[in-house]
Amino acid sequence: MSCIYGLHQMGNEDQGWVAHFLIQALEDKRIIVYGDGLQVRDILFADDLVDAFLLAQANIHTLSGEAFNIGGGLGNTISLVELINLLTDLRGEKPRIHLKDWRTGDQRYYVSDTRKFKAATGWAPKVTARAGIEHLLGWLAESRGLPAPHTLVSSGGFHALLAH
What we know:
By secondary structure, the protein is α/β, with parallel strands linked by helices. It has a single domain, classed as Rossmann fold (3-Layer(aba) Sandwich), CATH 3.40.50.720. It is about 40% helix and about 15% strand. It is globular and about 50 Å long. The two termini are about 25 Å apart.
């Protein structure tokens, strides 16, 4: 599985980095960016992962013994810089950033190839990166007693932002 994120996630710098960036911004703490921030990852909202697991279970007899990559795929890629820019748009202010040198072993680009699982089950992520990030940011703000980001109020909510 690639970078899974979603509600109730209290990520840290190494695991759950999407939630970690959002939490750091909401708490006005520095977001540490290693390297140039142009590292690209595919992200998958937890609801879409649950859908994939349910499809795998429903198709267990034909999928048994196979290996599949599960992630957001090409349609849900985001760089660290893009996430910071989205956070800036959603909150109306740029988060505090601290740049550090590249970490050993950090990949510039990682995107899961989910075509095999899609061919076997018809599965594809439904939640766009932006919609999932907005939903998580709104939930994190609410759980901390903070006002919801302004775009959530005017967007018609999370379900209106699902990919079609």
